[in-house]
Amino acid sequence: MKIVPALTYILRATSYGLLTAVVLLILVPELRSGSSASLNIFKPVDEKPKPVSYASAVAKAAPAVVNIYSESIETNPRYRSRSLQRIKLGSGVIMDSRGYILTNYHVVLNADLITVVLQNQTELTAELIGSDELTDLAVLKVQASNLPVIPMDDSQTPLVGDVVLAIGNPLNLGQTITQGIISATGRSGLSSTSYREFLQMDAAINDGNSGGALVNSNGDLVGITTAQFKRLNPQINIQGIFFAIPYKLAKKVMLELISNGRVVRGWLGISSQRYNPQLKGFVIDATTPGSPAQVAGLQKDDVVYKIDGTAIVSINHALDIVAETKPGTVLNFSVIRNKQAIEVPVKIVELNR
Questions:
Q1: What gap in Å lies between CA 208 and CA 169, rounded to an integer?
Q2: Which pLDDT belongs to residue 232?
Q3: How far is CA 351 from CA 21, 43, 173, 264, 298, in A?
Q4: DSSP 256-271
């Protein structure tokens, strides 16, 4: 008869066990997943969080950033038999596996010999395909194939606050990465002529960085590094203000240089410093004598609010439309003159510098 108490004991213990299990499942939800991680919840956790790293972005982009050495031979009239060899240091970005490389115009200016050094230390002689002084860009071509190409994303738009990495060869120390954020953005039209049209950031740029890559945290090309802000007074120490040519503008200029050997820009011939927010157009301050604007009849104080049906949001927007128009094209300017809306057709000509 001892079997009955034993069974009673077993049933009671089992009931307690099931009740305990239910309570644990209610109080500790992690146990419900049944994963191996849930078995370790009572063990001390000593794993450190992974550090923030941009190693993946650098690994994608860095192989496509090259060192550039521009050699020029100068003669001095006082030493007729002697010539002076000058070598300028810069960086470049491989944009096409067939050997097209973007760099800065000032890196290869007046160069007699241009040498490109890949990250695997391969040395190649480069040919200058074309250059554009206004955007400080130049396109080189090396005889090679299957080269590493910088990652590019045409859909990305750089924003103020984005983390960026500058990759180049400062002071010939070897490939170096500097990090910062974008502090201001500009436009991406062919009319770009000054710092305000470029990306402003605080990733350090030194001699030798010029023409290198500015990439985002995914390794995608954001811009071509170009300059450090400088004041007329060299005694003023400026830090954290550097510039890069936006990727979309750089690509646009590159394609023009590859196709034509130069950048062809349209020219209107006006000056304007005012935008009228009520009329949503820019105010013409003056027209250049003999310019397309003057010949077509555009006048001082005219307010241009549309160009070929496109609403104008800023003066720079209007200049971009004109700059990117093929010379010989007629654009219709929608103008407010003396409170009257009129249409003025203007034949755009090529900008000559």
A1: 5
A2: 47
A3: 82, 73, 40, 7, 18
A4: HHHHHSS---EE--EE
Name the amino acid, one letter, at 228. Answer: Q
- Which of these is catalytic: 131, 188, 192, 210? 210
Share of the chain above pLDDT 90, in %: 36
DSSP string for 51-66: PP--HHHHHHHGGGEE
Would residue 210 show up in a list of annotated catalytic residues for this protein? yes
Active-site residue, selected from the candidate residues 70, 131, 132, 136: 136
Question: Which one, of 254, 113, 98, lies nearest residue 190 by Cα?
Answer: 254
Sign of CA dihedral 108, 193, 179, 171: positive
CA dihedral (303, 307, 310, 314) in degrees, to 10, reads -50
pLDDT (tens digit, 9 = 90+) per residue, 246-282?
A: 999 899 999 989 988 888 888 888 888 888 888 888 8
Answer yes or no: 106 catalytic.
yes
- Within a 10 A sphere around the Cβ of 349, how many other Cβ atoms? 17
Residue 28 DSSP class: -
- How many other C-beta atoms lie within 10 A of the C-beta of residue 99? 19
Active site residue 317: no
Report, as ranges of residue numbers, the positions in the chain whose pLDDT lies below 70. Answer: 1-19, 21-46, 76-84, 187-196, 228-238, 353
Choose the catalytic residue: 106, 188, 272, 302. 106
Quick one: DSSP state of residue 326?
Answer: P
